[in-house]
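Here is a typical sample entry:
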Amino acid sequence: MQYSNNPLSSADTPATFSAHGFKMLEDIADELSGDLCFPICFDISVRLRKLAEGPGVSAGRLLALISAEPLVCLKILRLANAIASHSGAPAVRDPAAAIALVGADKVALWASRIAARQLLAARSMADYATLSDELWRHSITAACAAEVLAEKMTRLDPREAMLAALVHDIGAFYMLYRAAQYPALRDKPEVLEALVMQWHEDIGVSVLESLRTPRALIEAVTHHDLPRQQPEALRNLADVVYIANLLAGGHPEWLPHEGETEMRRHQQPGRAYQRLMPEIEARVSALKTALG
């Protein structure tokens, strides 16, 4: 996603933003100290429930579903790492390793329970379903882009790069879920837009910290939308996530009206990165096919 350092117009400040925005931000701060569970993709949650209820769990399908669901993926990694720490096993850094350590049946049960809570929470999300789905599609495209970038242009672990890009906009998902609980915001789309543009990165970091996400992943997604000079060589995970986000197209509906020309200049990935788009699109297509 893209945001402006000053996303609020004079019409939105101070009264409108204060009345409908600050209350939501205060409540978010309170909730972040608890066990977070919020909707990401309704279809994935339904499929995870059905998979666990079936006669046998396909490890391949389970991996595809978890790899396309940011919150479920992070929670599964946290649970698997709790087991790893007690058994002396190496830290789990991706969902495939979690399934290998714990077993597909157990991971499917965990994922199903998380998905059940997501489905309950999704009842209030009807007004934002289209936007949430677009954001999810952007996230999985960015994840596939990061995997390809890491494979082709770095020595980084492609699975870790994919995970970092998958969760880079998790703060925006959480904010949409919280916004659904404030009827006044449904009639103030410009206020919600300003809130998400300005706060989704900071809140995303807080969400990741609440989920006890590894520090390397948190650092990789911090400031992922801040416009800057594109690196000629990808030096670290943060560079990969930044370029992956650009290759995934950002999120046009969040582009600011002021300074848009300069923002778009930073949005255009260099040719060395753009030439990877056919491979990225193939990965996205393969992932969607695996999801069924």
Remarks:
- The chain has two domains: 1-35+125-292, 40-124.
- Residues 121 and 260 are 35 Å apart (CA to CA).
